[in-house]
Specification:
- The complex is a heterodimer of chains A (235) and B (814).
- With 235 residues, chain A is an alpha/beta fold.
- Chain A has one domain: Rossmann fold (3-Layer(aba) Sandwich).
- Chain A has seven helices and ten strands.
- In chain A, the strands form two sheets. A six-stranded mixed sheet of chain A has the order 6-7-8-3-9-10, with helices on both faces. In chain A, strands 2-1-4-5 form a four-stranded antiparallel sheet, covered by helices on one side.
- In chain A, strand 4 and strand 5 form a beta hairpin.
- In chain A, helix 3 packs parallel to helix 5 and helix 5 runs parallel beside helix 6.
- In chain B, helix 2 packs antiparallel against helix 11.
- The longest helix of chain B has 51 residues.
- The chains are: A alpha/beta (235), B alpha+beta (814).
- Chains A and B meet through helix 2 and helix 3 of A and helix 21, helix 22 and helix 24 of B.
- Bound molecules: adenosine-5'-diphosphate (ADP) and magnesium ion (MG).
- The site of magnesium ion has 2 residues of chain A, from helix 1.
Amino acid sequence: MNAPAEALIKLDGITKVFYTDEVETHALAGVHLDIRKGEYVSIAGPSGCGKSTLLSILGLLDTPTDGRYFLNGRTVADLPPSERARIRNREIGFIFQSFNLIGDLTVFENVELPLTYRGMKSGERKQRVEAALERVGMAHRAKHLPSQLSGGQQQRVAVARAVAGEPLILLADEPTGNLDSRSGEAVMDLLRELHRAGATICMVTHDPRYARHAERAIHLFDGRVVEDMEMAVTE
Amino acid sequence: MRTLLQDLRYAGRLFRRAPGFALVALATLALGIGATTGVFSVVNGVLLQPLPYHDPAQLVAVQTSRTQARDDSMSAPDFLDFQARNHTLAAMAAYREDVFTLRARGVPIQADGALVTAEFFTLFGVRPLAGRFFGADDAKAGRALAVLSEGFWQREFGGDPGVVGRTLQLGGASYTVVGIAPASFAWPQERQIWALATRAAPEPPIATTEGYLTNRGMRYLDVVARLKPGVAPATARADLETIQTGLARLDPDEEAGRSVSVTSLQEQLTGDVRHVLLVLLAAVGVLLLIACINVAHLLLARATGRAREIGIRTALGASRTRLVRQLITESLLLSLAGGAAGLLMATWITAALVRLAPHSLPRLTDVHVDPRVAAFAVLISTATGLLFGLVPAWQVSKAGPSDALRAGDTRTGAGVASHRTANIMIVAQVGLSLVLLITAGLMGQSLLRLVDQDPGFHPEHVVSAQVFLPQTQYATAAAQTAFYERFLQRFASQPGAPPIAIAFPLPLGSGGSARASFQIQGQPEPPHGTRPVARMGIVSPGYFRVMGIPLQRGRGFTDAARDAPPRAVVINETLARRYFGGADPLGAHVDLGMGPDNGPPEWFTVVGVAGDVRTGSLRAAPEPELYLSYREFLLPFMTAVVRTDRDVGAVTSAVRTAVAAVDPNLPLGEVRTMPDVIAASVQQPRLRALVLGSFALLALVLATLGIYGLVSYSVATRTREFGIRVALGAAPGEIVGLVLGLGLKLLVAGAAVGVAGAWAVTRGLSGLLYGVTATDPLTYAVLAALLVAIGTVASYIPARRATRVDPMTALRSE
Ligand SMILES: Nc1ncnc2c1ncn2[C@@H]1O[C@H](COP(=O)(O)OP(=O)(O)O)[C@@H](O)[C@H]1O
Ligand SMILES: [Mg+2]
């Protein structure tokens, strides 16, 4: 069990408004949130309450309409696109509900991709990719294309891709949403293992069984944090 | 019917929603169909349409030649012998082009005409527009008759039917107009007046003391004939060869070693332009191919994007036929609109080509947009549209709707196969465009080198004016010489008159040329018929100065009435180098064979060596050339050259004044500045470069559109992938690089194909090139690089778009 450390992420009054043709959607309406290093946070809430929006702001895929966001102690507003890309690449690991592997690349190449963007030497890349695939139990499928894998296997590859670069934080958006319960369990076990090894994880899920894996549960409703509680982890 | 309307409405909506796609496809079809139809219409009109004469396949041109000497014309006695003794020809006629002077509407004018034998018009089998043509009894009676062309009759006589029967003064002699030839009759080309020869054969162009009906050495006639029914040209040739063999026994000097050629009139007419037009046709064929590839690829790309939509429709219960009909409707709508635009374009391109074409291009009046050709082009592009419009339906029926529905997720599914097809098409397209670009580049370079070629004289500030004499009026050499002498004097006596000279031929002009065989005194006499031949220039004193031709050694001609014997000749550098070697030519004696046959040689003394001039064309290396004073030897087709800073109008009126002072009935021929003369002499290569250049440009535009379309499409289908890459931390530059790489790979492959293709194709064109080899590495490299650069810029636009992909929308789309 990791002792809670200093705040890795600090959100201060984050709002997000989407303007479409006629409607203003207030997806986030003032979110305050601290996530410390080594924490395993689950975010739950009804569909449309803003979970994915929150995660994409955390992952620098989107910018808030208002509010301040500190990542690892510094504000990330007004960073140029290239710097945001660098942060996404080195400090953040994404896991998506629909896996989002690139169909034309092999398993190995998919996992290697973020390391390539980092300009890492190929020898080191190979080592890291192999280690990451080993960790998720997919090393034997390195040469396969995503389409030749089951959903659960694809998601394990996606996890390997997210952790290969040793990011500061893993962001997972309903990682089990497209999986049957057995594969879902396997992926959750994987995340828990990663957490035990020190990873900071922020995971969206509305499955209460999986939410229990986390040590802290946040409830979102209508773009606001309505509940934030530390939990005893059930083993 | 209602479903058709529904299909049409849906197709219209699709095009409205993707106007870029519809526009690119339309423009491509219009360009492809337009250019192909336009050029093919010209080729069809000039090369393929039968001549508008009765049974044109039986019409032939008859020539005899010694390959070595370039005298394809026939002498009068030869013509008469062939005419009398052949067994294979239904009729045979001889003619000679001539320039007539006459007064029309009160001013002296010059008209292009021909002197023809009595059989001429009946042989062609055309009907007169008014009056009649010549008959055998006209010739027997020695009547002086003329036929006018329809155009000339309209222009000069306002189409007055009363002209038939009227007497015209042609070059001072009276001719009765008996008929009008229709505009469709154009043999020889661009004639305005045909006059009947008053004896068995037309008289020669230069005054002669000997009987031209018996002199076999005087070759000046063109001969046309009609084969007897069922007789092939080869049979006629064999027949005439037998007669030629008999002539060779009779007069070995003139007739030995001559062979007869019998060429179809059509080939005779179009032989020179055939090659060029076929190159053009090939170029435009490539263009149509590129256009079809483009449309095919556009439709394929769209098909990939629609596999999902079609899958959904199938899943919802649409029958295969229903789907196919929808797709056919869309393709047809596109093809028909493209075809209509293409036809519009075709009429425009045809008109432009006819306007651009050199006057020497035969049969331009026969050129019109051929409906069969247009139908063919529309058919091709419609077939392309249909074929590739159906691909999505075929893919769906092959894969089944569930596959297509699933396809949207990780891979583009059915798109993979068509992606490969599209890539191959783009590579082919880029390759073909490069072939065209390189061909045009080589032609353009040839033109530049040609124009850059030093003609051997200084054309700037020189104005030329034809001063031709009618033979009827100036029948003797003495009369002709006297006219030109007085003309030069009158011109020079005008106050402030600029330097003037007269010459035949005008360098790079189109007025024919003269050649003479010669023998240098002291050098061994070569066997019969193998004397060296040189171009002959006939000039007045001052010619070299006016034209700015340097005299390397010795002097030019003097103004003395006639150089006292021995008479003077000036030779050019090439002749001096080739026939005198290291020896000094000045003072050497040359016989030009001007004396009576078998008489003693008449020696001319070399008094000067002039710089080489490109007399015939800028292209050909200078040939040996001999200059004589116009007082020694004269043709009544001299051109005056004037060096002056004054404008053409002022020079024209000064020349006209001097001419009128000597002979008020004499018209002035063509007046042109020397730079214009030079420009006209490179009209063919210029047209080639221009037309091929425009096609290459069109091809480049089409290929660029193709690249742009493919890369755009690729970006569109891969938004999700780009979203993932952005989420994983790809910087904008990396995304741009990725997309550019996509286009670049195809471009480089296409360039390689193009270089190989051009290498294979352009070697067949070396005959049309000048100063640049068909494999010029610089041309290849520069144009390949240009194409790749332009293609890269075209893919940069979609690449920028790819960086603006919002990773959230990309990732959210399920
Ligand atoms: N790009 C967008 N444009 C407009 N509205 C959006 C956009 N993204 C999300 N929304 C809206 O914001 C709200 C929150 O969406 P989201 O964060 O995806 O919810 P959740 O992931 O919790 O289901 C929803 O009402 C959704 O419709
Ligand atoms: Mg969501």
